[in-house]
Amino acid sequence: TLVSAADMLKKARAGKYAVGAFNTNNLEWTKAILQGAQESNSPVIIQTSMGAAKYMGGYQVCIHLVEDLIESMGITVPVALHLDHGEYEDALKCIEMGYSSVMYDGSHLPFDENLEKAKEVVAKAHAKGVSVECEVGSIGGEEDGVIGSGELADPKECKAMTDTGIDFLAAGIGNIHGSYPENWAGLSFETLEKIADITEGIPLVLHGGSGIPLDQIQKAISLGVSKINVNTECQEVFAAATRKYIEEGKDQIGKGFDPRKLLAPGTAAVTELVKQRIEWFGSKGKA
Ligand code: G3H
Ligand code: ZN
């Protein structure tokens, strides 16, 4: 069964580690993420963007897929199914349907509206034991059509947002979705420290986890980051492993074109990356 991410992340915050939140797109990725977490004896968050859920056939398919794989794969580590960057209507839909965690992302709206909607989502989610993430400021770059300005979060707005009762907060601290440009200034630890101080122990979320150097990841965790989102890096290793398989002509040998064989190297590469990131984030053995 799926668990809410609230307890998972409270423990992570207290224990000074972070839980990886990995985006899924299909059967193979979902298996790969579950496998990596199980082999690491680590809690894990599987998340779908609105677009990925649509691609997979809808939220109900995602719920059944994750729940049934937990059963059939014999997964014993805690697993949360989370909606990533959800609009208001989609967040409510996922709460209703059986996601165990949702992000309501109103960061593109005027702040007062973001706050009002967040309150409504929290009320509906908590009535069903579902955890809630909201965003203040903006994550730079683009993810699945969601484009952000990269504006640093205002600590006062962060405090107002956590006062709504959300379970964890995503704040823009110079992080960017997708790969980081050569001239990236790095995370703003000054902003992160101010936010952590004023929000008094609420778990913080680092979006755009792909391509952030380990030392910055570790410093961010020491300052209160308890959930780290990774998407692009999984896509990159999947594509690279699949390309290698095809370039080596392995799809032409025997029944190497069978999708169960063709997709196996990419799937294994995602599992490996998940295990590596779990080590980086410090959640190995924390299930
Ligand atoms: O919400 C998902 C993440 O923030 C993923 O970011 O693609 O840069 O790893 P990433
Ligand atoms: Zn994100």
Task: Please supply descriptive tags for the structure shown above.
287 residues, alpha/beta, TIM Barrel, 8-stranded parallel beta barrel, two-stranded antiparallel sheet, 12 helices, binds glyceraldehyde-3-phosphate, binds zinc ion, zinc, fructose-bisphosphate aldolase activity, metal-binding, Fruc_bis_ald_class-2
Q: How would you portray this structure in words?
A:
GO terms for molecular function: fructose-bisphosphate aldolase activity; zinc ion binding. This protein has 287 residues and is α/β, with parallel strands linked by helices. It has one domain: TIM Barrel (Alpha-Beta Barrel), CATH 3.20.20.70. It contains 12 helices and 10 strands. It has an 8-stranded parallel beta barrel with strand order 1-2-3-4-5-8-9-10, surrounded by 11 helices. Strand 1, helix 2 and strand 2 form a beta-alpha-beta unit. The longest helix has 18 residues. It is globular and about 60 Å long. The mean pLDDT is 97. It binds glyceraldehyde-3-phosphate and zinc ion. Zinc ion (ZN) binds next to loops.
Question: In a nutshell, what does this entry contain?
Answer:
The protein has 287 residues and is of the alpha/beta class. The protein contains twelve helices and ten strands. The protein is globular and about 60 Å long.
CATH topology heading:
TIM Barrel
Q: Specify the structural class.
A: alpha/beta
Question: Any low-confidence stretches, pLDDT <50, length ≥5?
Answer: none
Q: Bin the helical content.
A: 40-55%
Strand content: 15-25%
Rg calc: 18 Å
What is the topology?
Blueprint: H1 5-15, E1 19-23, H2 27-39, E2 44-49, H3 50-56, H4 59-72, E3 79-86, H5 88-97, E4 101-104, H6 111-127, E5 131-136, E6 141-143, E7 146-148, H7 155-162, E8 168-171, H8 189-199, E9 204-206, H9 214-222, E10 225-230, H10 232-247, H11 259-262, H12 264-281
Parallel strand pairs: 1-2, 1-10, 2-3, 3-4, 4-5, 5-8, 8-9, 9-10
Antiparallel strand pairs: 6-7
Helix pairs in contact: 2-4, 2-12, 5-6, 7-8, 10-12
Bound molecules: glyceraldehyde-3-phosphate and zinc ion.
Residues 85, 139, 143, 177, 207, 229 line the site of zinc ion.
